[in-house]
Design a protein that fits this description.
It is an enzyme of class 2 (transferase). Residues 131-312 form the Polyphosphate kinase middle domain. By secondary structure, the protein is α/β, with parallel strands linked by helices. Helices cover 38% and strands 22% of the residues.
Length: 704
């Protein structure tokens, strides 16, 4: 071993932002993968587009703010200054957008083969144009508002991510002279991005036009007496990162509501322009007015904002099932036997018998909803305490918490108001819960509460029983259908005490409590992991069997990266399954030769956090709400919890083994930070981990 190697050299790390772009490139590759059904490929394009929006609104916006105030200090891993990061981001993103353009055009061609097409206005027959003109006059025209731009009416403040038309006009005066004028027309948010043209005896063909092109074609109707010279379709992305100044709970609620209003109007960080409709004079005006650089302009061959493909997917999926993924139904949890000898058990009886593990989406999220519903309706339940980070639009969890409060139970709900891009949603839920009689709290000052935990307190024949649910994912039954996550039900007394202390710590005045099993961030999770890695190194030096497997969304914490480098140098074999950003570089001689990093991007979003340490045969498996990111270690309230039941440990080990064998959707990172599909040997059996886990869930039910 070379002792003079410095583990914290910049060349040993990936920059966080560039690593994230590499992840989004993998999403884009799924849109290009013809083994995915056609409509699913369109959905991956929508995901890519949505991801990029958030990246610009938060990460790019932050870098631009740093550059604006003259901040030049390099980030602490790859050693890039804000300006250097922006230069690399811009170069990579322009390439990705070019691939997005090409991919979309290819998918449109494939759609035509399925009798589905988007047509330009020039391709339409007179009959179709007549229909669309009537549609424009009756449905669209009344909603449009032309905004003149002149000396008396300045360039309007245009909302974030909305599609707009800049219309260049000519007007003749009485002398016959012409004067150029400009106006902005915003595409109405409440209307669909695409309009279907009724079938005119052409079999099963379906034809659509983009609403912005339809408006462009008939926009002259908004300006009678004037001549339209050009129309430029554009979209502005703005800085949308909230700056919250926390005081009391009421102040926080009001602060977030005020900041949400301002999110639409932050500084411009990106301008997207349709290549079909472009005026160079208008572009120059935009650069000056929005205070952006030419490099901040992205030209798209097709429509702007491909997130509209989410809605397009839903509309076509019902008629084109062969173009979507095969439908799989989440199976009942294999650890949850609901009925025995003809007697149906309630969920509390089941959990008292043994710990229950749920693996979503392969196993149903319904037991979690049933847990809250049963607690709300059970006369023996005294209290429910729960953390909520992101919930669905029509959350049954919220409904049953409200019902529990109305039934006279004590209900404590920690609603995280600072869950990015869910703030408005959560503010509304917080108000509704409070109005129903729930005790609503907002966590600790300057910390996000990202933990996923529920405690139900029940009185059974003068004995107090505590039931706990802990998870790696949110209490959201919709995302549970497409995110892979793990959840644990337990009636273990020590877990119950830990849960009680955890909620008392959040709601009252007390120091961070000692726990029997829970490990809590800030700080403690990192320290626990460092100790576990050190133990793994010591065990390996004794027995040569050091082994660590970690699965997470992102890995950015430098202290933990360096600790794994130390373990690698000591000979510990390490496998990392990191879906998104990974600042660790594997395979570097003398640094990370014993570390392998893979990323699985497939049908489902890999969201579970699993940490395995061999510990010389005394295996330790931890599940967590936390990724190994500095923000999770220092700026969030997170929970990591152990799996104690040996059977459940074996299940999780089996799942990890399946992920590590994936040779279909798995990509491996090299020592330079680049990802390529895992190589398969000739005649090697195909292993798609997510599909194998589905098969396993079905097989387990067949065995019952």
């Amino acid at each position: 071993m070379e002792n003079n190697i410095k583990l914290n050299e910049p060349s040993n790390f990936n920059n966080r932002e560039l690593s994230w772009l590499s992840f989004n490139k993998r999403v884009l590759e799924e849109a290009r993968d013809d083994s995915n059904p056609l409509l699913e490929r369109l959905k991956f394009l929508a995901i890519f587009s949505s991801n990029l929006d958030e990246f610009f609104m938060v990460r790019v916006a932050g870098l631009k703010d740093q550059i604006k105030v003259g901040f030049t200090q390099p980030e602490n891993k790859a050693g890039l200054t804000p300006k250097e990061q922006m230069e690399k981001i811009t170069k990579i993103t322009h390439k990705l957008v070019a691939i997005q353009n090409k991919t979309y055009q290819e998918l449109l061609t494939a759609l035509k083969n399925e009798d589905v097409s988007f047509l330009s206005m020039q391709e339409l027959s007179p009959e179709c144009l007549s229909y669309l003109e009537q549609h424009f006059d009756k449905i669209i025209f009344p909603v449009l508002t032309p905004l003149a731009v002149d000396a008396y009416r300045p360039f309007p403040l245009l909302a974030n991510k909305r599609i707009n038309l800049d219309v260049t006009l000519y007007e003749k005066d009485d002398s016959g002279n012409t004067e150029k004028k400009f106006a902005i027309v915003q595409v109405p948010k409440g209307l669909d991005r695409f309009v279907e043209i009724p079938n005119q005896d052409e079999g099963h063909k379906r034809k659509f036009v983009y609403i912005e092109e339809l408006i462009s074609h008939f926009v002259y109707k908004l300006f009678p007496g004037m001549q339209v010279q050009s129309v430029t379709i554009f979209r502005i992305t703005r800085n949308a990162d909230l700056e919250i100044h926390e005081e009391g709970a009421r102040d926080l609620l009001k602060e977030i509501e005020e900041e949400l209003k301002m999110r639409k109007w932050g500084a411009a960080v990106r301008l997207e322009v349709s290549k079909k409709f472009i005026d160079k004079e208008v572009l120059a005006f935009f650069i000056d007015e929005l205070e952006i650089h030419e490099k901040d302009i992205y030209f798209l061959e097709g429509p702007l904002d491909l997130t509209f493909l989410f809605g397009f997917y839903k509309q076509l999926a019902a008629f084109k099932e062969h173009l979507t993924f095969e439908t799989f139904l989440p199976q009942p949890a294999q650890d949850m036997i609901i009925e025995q000898e003809g007697v149906k058990k309630n969920i509390f009886e089941i959990i008292k018998e043994k710990d229950v593990l749920l693996h979503h989406p392969f196993e149903s999220f319904e037991p979690v909803i049933d847990f809250i519903r049963s607690a709300a309706e059970d006369d023996q339940v005294l209290a429910i305490k729960q953390t909520l980070y992101r919930v669905s639009e029509e959350s049954p969890i919220i409904k049953y918490l409200i019902k529990a409060a109305e039934n006279g139970k004590q209900v404590l709900v920690l609603v995280e108001l600072k869950a990015r891009f869910d703030e408005e949603h959560n503010v509304q839920w917080a108000k509704e819960l409070e109005e129903a009689g729930c005790h609503v709290i907002y966590g600790k000052t300057l910390l996000k509460t990202h933990s996923k935990i529920t405690l139900v307190v029940r009185k059974n024949h003068d004995v107090i029983e505590r039931f706990v649910h802990l998870g790696t994912g949110n209490y959201n039954e919709e995302t549970a259908k497409v995110y892979t996550d793990l959840g644990l039900f337990t009636a273990n007394e020590e877990f119950g005490i830990d849960a009680t202390n955890f909620f008392n710590y959040l709601s009252g005045f007390m120091e961070k409590p000692p726990f029997h099993h829970l490990i809590m961030a800030p700080n403690d999770i990192r320290e626990e992991f460092i100790q576990l890695v050190d133990k793994e190194i010591a065990f390996h030096q004794q027995s040569g069997n050091g082994r660590i497997i970690a699965k997470m969304n992102s890995f950015t914490d430098k202290k933990l990266i360096i600790k794994l480098y130390e373990a690698s140098r000591a000979g510990v074999k390490i496998d990392l399954i990191v879906r998104g950003t990974c600042c660790l570089r594997p395979g570097i001689k003398g640094v990370s030769e014993n570390i392998r990093v893979i990323s699985i991007v497939g049908r489902f979003l890999e969201h579970s956090r699993i940490y395995y340490f061999h510990q010389n045969g005394q295996e330790k498996i931890l599940l967590s709400s936390a990724d190994l990111m500095t923000r999770n270690m220092e700026k969030r309230v997170e929970i990591t919890f152990p799996i104690l039941n040996l059977n459940l440990k074996e299940r999780i080990k089996q799942n990890l083994a399946i992920y590590l064998m994936d040779n279909v959707k798995s990509r491996e990172q090299d020592r330079l930070g680049n990802y390529t599909y895992v190589k398969r040997n000739t005649n090697e059996e195909l292993v798609n981990s997510q599909m194998n886990l589905w098969a396993l869930a079905y097989d387990n039910m067949d065995d019952e």
